[in-house]
Amino acid sequence: MQTPADPQDRHEYPSHWEADVVLRDGGTARVRPITVDDAERLVSFYEQVSDESKYYRFFAPYPRLSAKDVHRFTHHDFVDRVGLAATIGGEFIATVRYDRIGPGGTPASAPADEAEVAFLVQDAHQGRGVASALLEHIAAVARERGIRRFAAEVLPANTKMIKVFMDAGYTQKRSFEDGVVRLEFDLEPTDRSLAVQRAREQRAEARSVRRLLAPGSVAVIGVGRTPGGVGRSVLGNLRDAGFTGRLHAVNRAFPDDLKEVDGVPAHRSVRDIDGPVDLAVVAVPAEHVPDVVTECGEHGVQGLVVLAAGYAESGPDGRERQRALVRQARTYGMRIIGPNAFGIINTADGIRLNASLAPEMPRPGRIGLFAQSGAIGIALLSRLHRRGGGVTGTTGVSTFVSSGNRADVSGNDVLQYWYDDPETDVVLMYLESIGNPRKFTRLARRTGAAKPLVVVQGAGQAPPGHAVRATRLPHATVSALLRQAGVIRVDTITELVDAGLLLARQPLPAGPRVAILGNSESLGLLTYDRCLAEGLRPARPQDLTTRASAADFHRALSRALADDSCDAVVVTAIPTIGEGAVGDAELAEALRSAAEEVPGKPVLVVHVELGGLAEALSAAGRTAPSAGATAPGTGGGAHPFRPAERLPTAEAAQAGERLPTAGAAEAAQAGGSLPTVEGAGAAGAGERLPAAGAAERLPAAEAGGPTGVVAPSVTLPRSPKRFAAEIPDASRTPHPHSRLIPAYPAAERAVRALAEAVKYAQWQREAAEPGKVPEYDDIDERGAAELIGGLLERGEGLTIGAEETCRLLGRYGIHVHRALPAPTPDAAADAARALGYPVALKATAPHLRHRADLGGVRLDLADEEQLRRAYDELSELFGAPEELRPVVQRMAPRGVDTVVRAVIDPAAGAVVSFGLAGAASQLLGDMAHRLVPVTDRDATSLVRSIRTAPLLFGWRGSAPVDTPALEELLLRVSRLVDDHPEVVAVTLEPVVVAPQGVSVLGATVRLAPPPARDDLGPRTLPAY
Predict the structure, then answer these.
(1) Do 347 and 396 contact (CB within 8 A), yes or no?
(2) CA torsion through residues 973, 975, 976, 980, sign
(3) Contact between residue 786 and residue 808 where contact means Cβ atoms under 8 Å apart
(4) b/e map of 841-877 (b: 16 or more CB within 10 Å)?
(5) Which of 360, 425, 543, 725 could be cross-linked to 366 through a Cys-Cys bond (beta carbons 3.0 to 4.6 Å apart)?
(6) Phi-psi group of 590: left, alpha or beta (phi > 0 → left; psi -120 to 50 → alpha; rest → beta)
(7) For residues 696 and 705, what is the distance between their CA atoms, to the nearest angstrom?
(8) How many whole angstroms separate alpha carbon 752 and alpha carbon 534?
(9) How far is CA 184 from the centre of its chain?
(10) Beta pairing, strands 983-993 & 927-931
(11) How far apart are CA 249 and CA 269, in angstroms?
């Protein structure tokens, strides 16, 4: 941090203007104010700028800066004169400054609201988006200082700078006079400027991740001289995966005459490597990492994967060590995966990167996988690696990132990369916390429109040492908001993989109508019941009987898929034995060929102990037999069913069998089997998965299924010979239209995955037409702003009074029924006469408010006698009037009591919530939520999202209520908190929704200075 030394500076050094930014090419730079201490840096920077760039800046040859220039460009008051610099390695690469000007273009002070702006970018860094990033930051600074408009004069030949201004998206005016282009533009963010900013953010952050996942050269730092150890293991994993780039082994303890380690060039330092190094995997103890980072930064390394532990997870000293690591890496423009990371993987043929502790490369596929926890990453890789039945190239991973402490690169960054990654069709994420919910929901909404995003969200605990803004929203509310953004929200890693495999293998269903067919009536009925429980619309199961042949399955599946009243098909299969029994491969081929006849509908299989079928389904999706070929493993005819061998159980372990090691407990989720780590089909024959992250294991009690239940497409081979006979040769040519049919060992798992696919497909269709925010002619936005401003002068945070609440809500067309205080029976009678009978008498004491079930409300009081009697009853039951705080209110039309709330959460943003009033709804948590601004489509779905919504639509013969009026009320509340962020909380309770109209009977509003909106400011990385 810089500190100004000039006593004439009018403001202290604005440290909050410092920021790290990601540039267009994926590198990073530091943006900070220029101070008097930067004179030498400025001169050095200027000397490296070409004469042409100097000419464009000063409109004349200007070979060097004078002492007066240096003083002017380094002395700022941080109000009327501000300069910012972009730095890498502590040196300037670009500068920008503004000078406040008056109407005639002369220097001015506030209240003048225009400033002249000028840039200078070092030639070596032009084209990296430095000027665009600086424009965002200097514009934010100017707005903070009361400047509303920038002016810039540019030579016509300086097309790059003109493009920076023109592409920014601000409202602008362009003129040409005296050989100079003059640009003027307002600094108020517009929809277009925000869209431009977010598009640049996406490209920059995606490229920063791409540089990590697709390096041309990798150095592993900390490679041991003898086999074993983390560095040597990672080097072996990279080599064995077939990494296509250059590979280097680095250890400062290598002898001078050592040239190679395991066939890889050996070096004592990164500085000794000839040529560039794109990625460094750091596997040295934490105390040696700073020296390594310095060497990497000076050599021009683009990114780091830090495997070392001993950082924030180890306590306060480690937390500070982690922050210093991030600051040091960003100084050199590098990004970090980790520390305490498991590593990264890219299975693309042209890369083959396994810079991780996983001893075997997962099979290539279309699934992008992110896990903060190394242990969870192990479990997920194990499941995906073995789900394909042993056939290479079936279901696998495109890229994998395990971020460890997530000090720098986060799930948001990786999501930016996957958004337009052509190698990734489905994204699976295990998130222990969401550091920036507002940004994550925005990115998730955009990604979900292009490809499925499936998320397991942890309990909300941030990675150690990671500074995240705390949310006050309940976990269930955050989950609901994620679903609104298109996230497929699941609870366990078993469900994560189940849903991911279906979405990666099958098309999305067009609706909830499900056909069920199979050779087991009981399994079909179980599947039918689960469909109903998940909100699907199943047809009665079709029982093919246990005598069904493969041809019977083919015909039944073909008919079901061809039926226009069917959106998806679940096939149930149990083993058959005896003469004429269906072979696994024969049945798999029958299902595959039938599914290909109608490729637009998803097909799932529920099987019972059919390991061979699960394997054969994977094989059938990978290859198709040539005409006249015999189904593999049948010998020209069907073979009897051979039951799948179970995975080792605890009892088996006592008998001498080996149980899985690291990552096993994490994979033991509800209904799932423990992953094996030895033997064919697991991590590799004779190899164990690394124990990294073993301390992070989940409790074994989370395993919800019986021990040994076989996971989809997972079985242990019977023997190498028999295994090979059942699985077709993976080298055969894939069928041009083949697709994989996922097989599940339990109906509830298959149906849950299908239900998630149905809901996601519905969201995707609705997202294509997102709705609009209506305009209302009777909204007085300016009047509301004046009222809020006057109220906030009383204090920084306050709950405003009843009269002021009614006035403020009235500015937005929300009318609250008057409630007059009744401290005595006579006052109650006077209030009733003023309002008109019939009236209601309510106790508003905190313990009785909105609790009609406690008896603190008397309704339909038709005259003064009834009112006085009710007053006496309440006093006898609950105490003196000063304790009851009674009020009198005119009766509203009868209807359904509801509650509408809005709150501005510091992390998630503004949220509107809706539910029925009463203890039962509160107890069950039956509330629905939407992010602001709420559109007309959002309001419609919000009303229908609660479980008790049927009460609004004529349940059991009751009169339907006026839901359009209710939706309008929700939209008006949304507009209020969106237009005025100072309104930090609104509660309308109760809101009585009658057959005609709504009545707001109670309202509270809280005002406070608005929380910072980091999504509207310039692009920045999280501060350290």
Answers:
(1) yes
(2) positive
(3) no
(4) bbbbbeebebebeeebbbeebeebebbbebbeebbee
(5) 425
(6) alpha
(7) 21
(8) 7
(9) 37
(10) unpaired
(11) 9
Count the neighbouring beta carbons within 10 Å of the beta carbon of residue 205.
25
Among the listed residues 265, 318, 256, the one whose alpha carbon sits nearest the alpha carbon of residue 289: 318
With beta carbons less than 8 A apart as the criterion, state whether 9 and 127 touch: no
Residue 10 banded pLDDT, cuts 50, 70, 90: low
Positive/negative CA dihedral, 152, 158, 161, 163: positive
Omega before 990 within 30 of 0, i.e. cis: yes
In 3D space, the residue among 473, 478, 474 whose CA is nearest the CA of residue 431 turns out to be 478
Q: At what angle do helices 191-213 and 411-419 cross, to 10 degrees?
A: 100
The DSSP 8-state label assigned to residue 360 in this structure reads S
Give the pair of three-digit tokens for residue 299: 């050599």
Query: Tens digits of per-residue pLDDT, 275-313?
Result: 999 999 999 999 999 999 999 999 999 999 999 999 988
3-class SS of residue 69: helix
| E-assigned strand segments in 78-132 | 81-88, 91-101, 114-121
CB atoms near residue 253 (< 10 Å): 10
How far apart CA 752 and CA 750 sit, in angstroms, is: 6
Helix-strand-coil split of the chain, %, nearest 5? 35, 20, 45
Q: How high is the pLDDT of residue 667?
A: 36
Dihedrals phi, psi of 252, to nearest 5 degrees: -65, -15
Per-residue pLDDT band for 628 (boundaries 50, 70, 90) equals very low
User: How many other CB atoms are found less than 10 A from the CB of residue 480?
Assistant: 21
How many CB atoms sit inside 10 A of residue 655's CB? 8
CA 16 to chain CA mean position, Å: 26
Residue 360: closest CA among 534, 490, 237: 237
Neighbours of 346 (CB within 10 A): 25
165-216 per-position pLDDT tens digit: 988 888 888 898 888 999 999 998 888 988 999 999 999 999 999 999 999 9
pTM here is 0.80
The residue written with tokens 């480690």 in the block is 318
The H-or-E segment that residue 992 falls in is: strand 983-993
Two tokens, residue 806: 């009614």
In sequence order, which residues have a C-beta less than 8 Å from that of residue 320 and are 6 or more positions away? none
Q: Residue type at 979?
A: D
Q: Are strands 246-250 and 217-221 parallel, antiparallel or unpaired?
A: parallel
For the beta carbon of residue 119, count every other beta carbon within 10 angstroms. Answer: 25
Residue in the structure block whose two tokens are 């192990």? 378
DSSP lists the bridge partners of residue 304 as 280, 336
The CA distance from 782 to 69, in Å, is 46
Backbone angles phi, psi at 178, to 5 degrees: 55, 40
CA distance 671 to 1018: 46
pLDDT at 648 over 50: no
Q: At what angle do helices 437-448 and 411-419 cross, to 10 degrees?
A: 20
Q: Return all residues near 921 (Cβ < 8 A) that are at least 6 apart.
A: 899, 915, 927, 946, 948
- In 3D space, the residue among 826, 1021, 983, 838 whose CA is nearest the CA of residue 901 turns out to be 983
* 1016 close to 191: Cβ distance less than 8 angstroms: no
The answer, yes or no, to whether the previous bond of 838 is cis (omega within 30 of 0) is: yes
CB 907 within 8 A of CB 470: yes
End-to-end CA distance of the chain: 12
> Per the structure block, which two tokens stand in for 102?
């008056």
Residue environment code for 322-343, b if the CB has 16+ CB neighbours within 10 A, otherwise e: bbebbebbbbbbbbbbbbbbbb
Task: Compute the mean pLDDT over every residue in the chain, rounded to the nearest whole number.
Answer: 83
H or E, element range at 983: strand 983-993
Average pLDDT over residues 257-280: 94
- Is the C-alpha dihedral spanning 29, 446, 941, 506 positive or negative? negative
Lowest-confidence range among 332-346, 415-429, 460-474, 951-965?
Answer: 460-474
Burial of 920 (0-12, 13-18, 19+ CB in 10 A): exposed
